[in-house]
Design a protein that fits this description.
Low-confidence stretches: none
Largest sheet: 4 strands, antiparallel
Shape: globular
Distance between the termini: 34 Å
Strand order of the largest sheet: 1-2-3-4
Number of strands: 8
Mean pLDDT: 92
Order of helices and strands: EEEEEEEE
Structural class: mainly beta
Radius of gyration: 12 Å
Helix content: under 10%
Amino acid sequence: VVYNCTFSFDDKLIVTACHDNTVRIWDTQRGQLKHTLAGHENQVRYSCFSADGIRVVSTSYDKTARIWDTQSGQVLSEFKFNDHFVRSCDFTPHSFN
């Protein structure tokens, strides 16, 4: 089950938030999976790209939000929330500039 999917600003990639606890990045020009980002311990509810397409943020029922590098697939940051899961989040248009 895919809960959400978002295009990168240049439309070359799609990121999906999945029921199987993963985030997936897809190449739209080739129609192929580029990365499966694993690390969340529960369903991923939301994911989206930064304006520059270099990062993805994901939120999960595991009460975390993670920022991922889209090239390497590595986690750059993790934010833990003690009381509630996070349904969505977003980058500002000028994130990381």
